[in-house]
Write a structure and sequence with these properties.
Pfam families: ABC_tran, oligo_HPY. By secondary structure, the chain is an alpha/beta fold. The chain contains eleven helices and ten strands. Bound molecules: adenosine-5'-triphosphate and magnesium ion.
Length: about 270
């Protein structure tokens, strides 16, 4: 891999949580993890519940500090960027679409803020509306149907697509998508996965896609990282990892999706 292409790099990153008041417990949620992702690449992080996927996401997003190790975006350690500069480059979509919206404001606010954030307040009213409408059309939402509504007046799938329209306005280099489809129905799930693929095509974005669903990882990613109890147990090109899993844990994960496994092996 040409090192110029590497957009995100984690180097020996660990996270130990400390909890409890009387009896202090330490949980090593992420244990000495290193991986790179290059421009325009979709990387899936797979692993069962509690394996440390969201902890990794939250450290990349600067929501959590790592206990040790270093994280670089475009060759610069993430703490060196101002938060504004950082979130112009790194954006997120989470599991619960409703949590990303404020119930008291119309959904438009999310896109207006994205325009302000990315272009400053100087953009004309007409240009602003055009950017918002274009981004909504790109995620197959009808601006006339969704603008002016409150979050509870849209479905979970529509809200997730709305958030992807926001990503199209900001045009970050990296998108962290933490289980973005687990709270929507199968139809909306397929739409979101296809949209993520389209986003990569349209703006050459790199995506860290977090899931415990092997089928989704197989569908969307170029490369896969398999996590178990905070450890990275296996990584490689998606086909290689899923067709010829080396680690017992990956083999067990795959055995729990027999139909996919059978299809690929037939
Ligand atoms: N704030 C916290 N304090 C203490 N322990 C935590 C905290 N957050 C997470 N953990 C623990 O760290 C480990 C990893 O959690 P994490 O949320 O990263 O897993 P995950 O792979 O995202 O799981 P899921 O698939 O359920 O979302 C788990 O053992 C969890 O209980
Ligand atoms: Mg999680």
């Amino acid at each position: 891999m040409d090192s110029d292409d590497i957009i995100l790099s984690l180097q020996q990153v660990s996270k130990i949580y400390t909890s409890g008041l009387i009896k202090v417990t330490k949980t090593t949620a992420v244990n000495d993890i290193s991986f790179d992702i290059k421009k325009g690449e979709i990387l899936s992080l797979v692993g069962e519940s509690g394996s440390g996927k969201s902890t990794i996401a939250n450290m990349i997003l600067r929501i959590l500090d790592s206990t040790s190790g270093r994280i670089f975006v475009s060759g610069t350690e993430i703490s060196e960027y101002s938060l504004n500069d950082y979130y112009n480059q790194v954006q997120m979509v989470f599991q619960d679409p409703f949590s990303s919206f404020n119930y008291f404001f119309k959904v438009d606010r999310v896109l207006n803020q994205a325009v302000d954030f990315h272009f400053g307040k100087k953009i004309s009213k007409g240009e602003r509306l055009k950017k918002i409408q274009d981004s909504l059309k790109l995620v197959s939402l009808n601006p006339d149907e969704v603008l002016g509504r409150y979050p509870h007046q849209l479905s979970g799938g529509q809200l997730q697509r709305f958030l992807l329209a926001r990503i199209l306005i900001i045009e970050p280099k990296i998108l962290i998508a933490d289980e973005p489809t687990s709270m929507v129905d199968a139809c909306a799930r397929a739409e979101i996965l296809n949209l993520l693929k389209r986003l990569r095509k349209e703006i050459d974005i790199s995506i860290v896609f977090i899931t415990h669903d092997i089928g989704q990882a197989q569908f969307i990613s170029d490369r896969v990282i398999v996590m178990e109890n905070g450890f990275l147990v296996e990584q490689g090109p998606t086909k290689q990892v899923f067709l010829n899993p080396q680690h017992k844990y990956t083999q067990n994960l795959l055995a729990s999706v027999p139909s996919l496994y059978r299809k690929w092996n037939s």
